Amino acid sequence: MVESKQQWKAWVYLLPCLVLLAIFTVWPIINTVRMAFLDGYSGLKEAGGETFSIGVANFVKVIQYKRFLQCLKTTMLLCLITVPVSTFLALLISVALNSIKFLQKPLQTIFFLPYVTNSIAIGMVFAAMFNIVGSFYGTENEIVVTAGIVNNVIEFFGGTRVNWINYGSTYFANMTVMVIYIVWNALPFKILILLSGLQSINKQYYEAAKVDGSSKSRIFWRITVPLLGPMLAYVIITGFIGGFKEYTSIVGIFGASMGPAHDAKRLNTMVGFIYDALATNQQGRASAAAIILFGIILVVTLINLRVSNKKVHY
Questions:
Q1: Do 203 and 219 form a contact (C-beta atoms < 8 A)?
Q2: pLDDT of residue 3
Q3: pTM here?
């Protein structure tokens, strides 16, 4: 503990960090709340001398926006599907890695690569994999279509080509691509956390279970999962927070249109809605949408914390 006479030194060391935190975190939050409650706020209009009354018109406009429910639906679906699936897969992979000692380090590196790769770049690769790469006229004026690797694999096993992301594709097909991508992209971080938790579990629990003749499935559900409770709670909560902020992965695959050519903005999310409002100089509406998103994340996080407090034993 720092002595009272030396506390000023600690504050001096912390001062640069506190100043940066106040400028780039605290003030933007305060300013966002301010803009959200200024009806029809626009930075350009304010610069021109226009004043704005205080009210909740921005929130009303956000809720009344014809695609607001679609943005909310897409965001909720991505969270509710990808978080449980990615967490369960990460748990299985972590248990497998923990038991393969001689290949653990190389496999850890392979699984961690998506986490250090740019999301837009990964999205472009996925778009090429699921895309129908090109349609053009051949030497005899016939239409030649080149499919991506996913459709090639489907056709190799006797299936029919699926229009995943191109013009005329369905919402279900688009969401399937996004779920696969987000789950794959979310695995590295969760594997890292869960694997570190597995390695910290006392091996005496497993030895005692083996002596009692417990099956592997019973050991997994009765020992491994409960003792990983704190880590599982952490990755689930952070997974939901990250899921509600999903944006770059959709842009990486579908581009700024956030959907196939025939239905732009079909896969728009809450964060995409905020960016759209900022692009049209509607900072008040964007701020209101940001606060609504913050409220949703806060409620979901509190529910997760409430559940984890009852189920998790530290």
A1: no
A2: 57
A3: 0.83
